[in-house]
Amino acid sequence: MVRVGIDVGGTGIQVGVLDEQMNILAEGSIPTSTAIPFAEQITLITECVLSTVASAGFDADQIESVGVGIPGIANKETGEVVKCPNMGWNHVPFRSEFKKHLNVPIFIDNDANVAALAESVAGVSAGTSSSVFITIGTGIGSGIIINGKIWNGFHGIGGELGHVIFDLNGVPCSCGNHGCLERYCSATAVIRMAREAIAQHPDTLMLKMVNNDILKIEARTIIDAARASDPLAMEVFARFIDDLAQAIASVVNFLDPEVIVLGGGVSKAGSFLLDPLSRKYKKYVLYNDQPMPKVKLAVLGAKAGIIGAAMLS
Ligand SMILES: [Zn+2]
Fold this sequence. Notes:
By secondary structure, the protein is of the alpha/beta class. It has helices at 38-55, 94-99, 111-122, 182-185, 187-200, 205-209, 219-227, 231-255, 271-281, 304-311, and strands at residues 2-8, 12-18, 24-31, 63-70, 73-75, 80-84, 89-92, 106-110, 131-136, 140-146, 149-150, 259-263, 294-297.
């Protein structure tokens, strides 16, 4: 028997076929296409599942379960995707539509929750009973694991660390509020901070690295320039670390998990991010003379999506 994990992303849908030990046996993918009706989207996804299962050498009747990670809100009881802007889904009956093609147990959950589960079972937080996974990319995603299980919140809308308000009069957020944490702690945020700083002080390595095209600045540009001791990049990166340290301290003050796991594009900065962050966050924790969670880097990378989805039950 095999388990199938599906990771619904902004640009593509990844499908993984895994054995009982959560080893990936085969992978497939299709591009995200929002221009076609929902039922056709599901037809394409199920075709991709069946061909990937076949390429692993199994038949459809050997599928034990299918799990799906959704960048949005999914109701795991009813199988409905409540909201998934990337796919243009609004209250769509995902499970019942999927079952028309493939009548197997199907589980859905939010993608950050799924990645949190994957890391807590087969990744860096394996063996812990509680963890908070924070993915730092275009935005901030987060997943909470308590007693080995995903905590979705009573109404299924919890775990949105990125939209915890950080500065009431701060930067406007796509959600309509001002000063959400992801406006300060995401890749998008550090890029904005760098552009603002460069406008004031254009004599920086960051600008040289992108041939003076400020729009080409990425999080990696800032990190690389900071590593090369460019004063302005170091200043921007230090501010970013400080904001992220406060966010992590808030998680600790509120939940005190066993471990905090950082994933997403920015986490590729490795120890350059992790070391100052681990040192700094402690000063913002209320009971900072007590033992505190370790902050660790995710190890499953982009595969966390399909692995965690396949683990859903
Ligand atoms: Zn927001």
